[in-house]
Description:
By secondary structure, the chain is mainly α. It has helices at residues 23-30, 49-59, 68-75, 85-94, 105-109, 112-118.
Amino acid sequence: MSHKADEHGVLPVAGGTADYSSPEVYALLTRQPVPEGGSRVEPCLLSDLPPIGYVLLDCAGLRGVPYGLHKFAREGGALPEGYPAAFVDFVLWLTAQDPAKRGSAQELLGHRWLQQQAGGVWQ
């Protein structure tokens, strides 16, 4: 079931798979404190962006690193070396602990890594 955000972008309910949840949704679902650098905010449209970054990292092989995705998402672990710089920048923007530091979906479409993958289609 989907829910419409209010005029401030706040969603009435939050849910999902905890491993792929944004820091603020994970804290809400698990009743854990928000990680350092994050903020306790109501789930909002920006809460949907970190899961995209986590799925990209999963597809890029971080799931195969023992506790790699969990450490990155929940403990602020570093990404292993070898990922292209533009990819890392894109993922870090998507997964910022503080929702205010995440780009909007429209801004993210203009990111250089995504543009490289799409051949400039989304400019």
